[in-house]
Amino acid sequence: MIKFENVSKVYPNGTKGLTNINLTIEQGEFVAIIGTSGAGKSTLIRCVNGLNNITQGNLLVNDTDVAKLKGKELRQFRRHVGMIFQSYNLVPRATVLKNVMFARVPDMNLFKVIFGLFSKEDKLAALDSLNKVGILDKAFIRADQLSGGQQQRVSLARALTQDTDILLADEPVSALDPVTAKEVMDDFKRINEDLNKTILLNIHHVELALEYASRIVAIKKGEIVYDGPSQNVTKEI
Ligand code: ADP
Ligand code: ADP
């Protein structure tokens, strides 16, 4: 569960990112955050995994009080909340399989990263995730040799290999062409339905949000202006 209670976020330069957000998302929901550029969508997503710290209020993620975490605890917490970025954030010259396995390496274990000493379990988990997003056949190809859609599937697989109930995604399909964008959204939908993962993503493409998410949260100037089922969304928001 994700629970925002009167959360506000003010950036150090005084810019208001979020103002008085109240939002509860239950396990297994598929929620899209919509709003124009600068509305606060990324800020909201980034608060959930502690990439942004909140200025006021309470934020609980699976009973963890995110604002209280720091250092090692915060890094550990983040490992259990999958995050997908618009720009994929892959290691370009590493294979797809390695990119996915990196997500399972405890961050102190640089040795493992540098020498690539992954366990059999790491490898099997990574292959299983690649299979779930339909790119198992790309496991031994370098990440930078894949198309945008395939790279985004690798980052989905990477998030899936983390032991996580929650997948966050910051504009995951905005760099993709419309057909590929739908294919990636289909993957999110399947992961949501088959694996009961909570999906919280922001997307400026309203039609896609309405088609795939069951719940829409619209934000404007850092405040929630709509929160409800996608079928009740009217043109005005
Ligand atoms: P988008 O509208 O596509 O979400 P933004 O232009 O709002 O992107 O932000 C792009 C990046 O720049 C983000 O990482 C954001 O944190 C940062 N950023 C946005 N506005 C400011 C600002 N006023 N000062 C510093 N960094 C900013
Ligand atoms: P969106 O994702 O909806 O485009 P953001 O969450 O990126 O919006 O930005 C919300 C507001 O916060 C904007 O006014 C943006 O300029 C500002 N902002 C974002 N990141 C930063 C930052 N690092 N420093 C200062 N202001 C920021």
Topology at a glance:
Blueprint lengths: L1 E9 L5 E10 L4 E5 L6 H8 L7 E6 L2 E2 L5 H8 L2 E5 L10 H7 L7 H6 L4 H13 L15 H14 L4 E5 L7 H18 L2 E5 L3 H7 L2 E6 L2 E7 L8
Parallel strand pairs: 3-8, 3-9, 6-7, 7-8
Antiparallel strand pairs: 1-2, 1-4, 4-5, 9-10
Helix pairs in contact: 3-5, 3-6, 5-6, 6-7
In short:
The protein contains eight helices and ten strands. The protein has 237 residues and is an alpha/beta fold.
Mean pLDDT: 92
What structural category arises from helix and sheet content? alpha/beta
Number of helices: 8
Order of helices and strands: EEEHEEHEHHHHEHEHEE
Strand content range: 25-35%
Count of beta strands: 10
General shape = globular
Question: Which residues form runs of ≥5 with pLDDT under 50?
Answer: none
Distance between the termini: 26 Å
Helix content: 25-40%
Characterize the main sheet.
6 strands, mixed
Strand order of the main beta sheet, please?
6-7-8-3-9-10
Overall description:
The strands form two sheets. Strands 6-7-8-3-9-10 form a six-stranded mixed beta sheet, with helices on both faces. The longest helix has 18 residues, at 178-195. Helix 6 runs parallel beside helix 7 (178-195). The protein contains eight helices and ten strands. It has 237 residues and is α/β, with parallel strands linked by helices. A hairpin with a 5-residue loop joins strand 1 (2-10) and strand 2 (16-25). It has helices spanning 41-48, 71-78, 96-102, 110-115, 120-132, 148-161, 178-195, 206-212, and strands spanning 2-10, 16-25, 30-34, 56-61, 64-65, 81-85, 166-170, 198-202, 215-220, 223-229. The model has no long low-confidence stretch (mean pLDDT 92). Helices cover 34% and strands 25% of the residues. The site of one adenosine-5'-diphosphate has 12 residues, from helix 1.
